[in-house]
User: Fold this.
Amino acid sequence: MDKPKVVLGVSGGIAAYKACELLRRLSESGHDVRVVPTASALHFVGEATWAALSGNPASTEVWESVHEVPHVRIGQGADLVVVAPCTADMLAKAAHGLADDLLTNTLLTARCPVVFAPAMHTEMWEHPATQENVATLRRRGALVIEPAVGRLTGVDTGKGRFPDPAEIFEVCRRVLARGPEGVAPDLAGRHVVISAGGTREPLDPVRYLGNRSSGKQGYALARTAVARGARVTLVAAETGLPDPAGVDVVRIGTAVQLREAVLKAAADADAVVMAAAVADFRPAAYAPGKIKKRDDVEQPPLDLVRNPDILAEISADRARPGQIVVGFAAETDDVLENGRKKLARKGCDLLVVNEVGEHRTFGSAENEAVVLAADGTETPVPHGPKEALADTVWDLVAERIS
Assistant:
């Protein structure tokens, strides 16, 4: 079988060296990668490095190998074009259709999905000109990943940092998996809020009540939503997972904190997906010091109080008309029967019901579920990667939003 053909465009920013890791992941996962750097990019990483890592020639000029018409053929034959890092200058050229080197010509001739991974200083990213260029590219069907927040060049910190190359690779992989329709992402222009991970309810400074949730399903939902063009807010409890590329991550600990963060983020959201494992109860009192075990005193019982029912609350009081609410039900017995009862009780539009246990689903990269809908339809999702379940959820959400 032919390998998927990926064009990796590299523009002239300090993050160009990080694109080597993205190139390695693409190549080692079975993609035929052609690196097309700009002349400025070669100031950071040389042509020999790109050629050696990709196994293909790397050129910046339209005047090399003219008989092959590279300024047309490279874009025409690509299954995906990803520009990483993408500078403010490259965003402007792409938005205005300029074609003064091999990469900009390739962008004009490509008819496959195009992904941009910007990296620049905060002031440049936030400038109205850059934001208008980003909006133009997104309107045309390109996927522009939101930059990360963190350390920039020198001592500066803010939004504009190049996302983790491993996470950019995951976005590229999901875009390729969706096929040619990735040219027009079906969640473009939509804001989705996702909760993930397991909340922790502190008992004393060293102990807490928690659960086995890894957060992997919520993170899969976030990654697939980005690949489908959505603006994503991820409210993340304890997971230990790296931030997905292009996602605004809000970190919380307890169920009460999760409620506050979700309600705030959901104010302008088109869809809210509650994939987090939220504790039903919390300790009635927090001990400021470690609770000691004493042989001469019988240990008192642990008093619990109920946590707020966030799913029922946001389902009953939608932040905006037409907002879609998705819940998750982790069951250990009578899975579908309990799921149907929960769907009616919570009032959400969709409920993902799956069977869980000590050695089932939690912490795994795979899942199996049935998605119950308020209209009575049921969509089974066979055992497979959690991303497959995530895509099914977004398929059903996209139908209802439109």
